[in-house]
Design brief:
single chain, alpha+beta, four-stranded antiparallel beta sheet, 13 helices, 10 strands, about 40% helix, ATP-binding
């Protein structure tokens, strides 16, 4: 049958339930970007920013454009050009369509039956663009959660597999990234240690993910710019060099991955002086591999503003925002706020989010070990 031809009454609305889900912004705390290079990371989501998706049953399948992010009406030609130069060509509709396609194909390939009712899917987000806070995957993650509930297949798709589905949707659009962000968002909050070692990835198709107590983290601060640089350029040269067997990149990336292991130990011991050292080392290694031109002057300045007053600082992702730790307490935080204000950066306390996995999610956790 032609996929465009639907049987009579197939799209008729039967179940009136509406599904809504949030997916939070992510901070790569230690070990990033080694998730792209069979490494290890520690990551967590934050309550400061999130993406939201809403799925409503409907007669026809509709992906609703966002009134701002998917704008197609402009005041003038100059206004159109201004928007494209500042926000690019991409909104969230393409992300929603991609996850719908990948989700459907995954279910088909794995013998998971889906009913033929239709829906309307919409989204919103307050995650600042190009801040390395994983805004795109947050939209995809929230939409996937809606699809899991609408088709009642949450119990059939393991938690460990869901980040791969999200990443595959983004790969459809040419987005180059690792699993770290998607794991943190799928796990719905909390602190997650991730091991992407080759032996695990080759055998399981995903990493080994361990939930840690979010309360092990000290007070942290998020620094970002209102007009950040594009984080999408950061991986390119390093990835090629790593694949080509560049010894400096391979050894440096292995050291970055090791920071996540040392960080887990430091967190469990609440050794925050060691944590400060590890955060700074993480950024220094990234800088040595990628170089200042690739990282961007503004991104480097955000780190240096924090370090200037003795705080630890590193990128949250690939650039655009920085996570800072002030080991000396409130007086140091006040200095950080003053320096950020002088430099034109925004600084806010990180709002931690405990894990929000449901009982049905927890039942899908695999006991597989490499």
């Amino acid at each position: 049958m032609d996929p465009n031809t639907k049987p009579a009454e197939s799209g008729k609305v039967q179940d009136k339930r509406v599904f809504e889900h949030r997916s939070f912004a992510r901070i790569g705390f230690l070990g990033n970007p080694s998730d792209v290079y069979v490494g290890r990371t520690i990551s967590f989501t934050i309550g400061n920013f999130w993406a939201w998706a809403k799925l409503e049953p409907s007669d026809h399948l509709l992906i609703k454009p966002h009134p701002f992010h998917d704008l197609v009406q402009f005041h003038s030609l100059d206004n159109l050009v201004y928007r494209l130069e500042n926000d690019g060509y991409y909104g969230g509709v393409r992300l929603i369509m991609a996850i719908c396609k990948v989700f459907r194909n995954y279910c088909k390939d794995n013998g998971i039956q889906l009913h033929d009712r239709n829906f309307t899917l919409s989204y919103d987000t307050n995650i600042p663009r190009q801040t390395g806070l994983s805004g795109s995957s947050a939209i995809v993650s929230a939409a996937l959660s809606c699809l899991l509930d609408f088709y009642n297949v949450r119990q059939l798709i393991r938690i460990e597999v869901r980040p791969n589905i999200i990443l595959n949707a983004e790969k459809e659009l040419g987005i180059i990234a690792g699993l770290q962000d998607r794991v943190a968002q799928v796990y719905g909050g909390g602190l997650v240690h991730m091991d992407f070692s080759k032996e695990h990835m080759d055998k399981l198709g995903y990493g080994i993910y361990t939930i840690m107590d979010i309360n092990l983290l000290p007070p942290l601060y998020l620094i970002y710019a209102e007009n950040p640089s594009d984080s999408g350029k950061v991986h390119s040269t390093v990835r090629r060099r790593w694949l080509d067997g560049d010894e400096f990149i391979i050894s440096s990336m292995a050291e970055v991955a090791k920071l996540a292991e040392e960080g887990r130990t430091a967190l469990l011991k609440k050794d925050y002086s060691k944590l400060k050292e590890l955060m700074n080392r993480n950024f220094d290694l990234r800088r040595s591999m990628f170089g200042d031109e690739c990282l961007g002057a503004m991104n480097i300045e955000m780190v240096e503003v924090a370090r200037k007053i003795g705080a630890a600082a590193k990128f949250t992702g690939s650039g655009g925002a920085v996570v800072a730790f002030c080991p000396d307490g409130p007086s140091q935080v006040k200095l950080l706020e003053e320096e950020c204000r002088k430099s034109g950066f925004i600084v806010v306390p990180v709002q931690l989010v405990p894990t929000r996995l449901s009982s049905s999610d927890l039942k899908t956790l695999s006991d597989s070990k490499p």
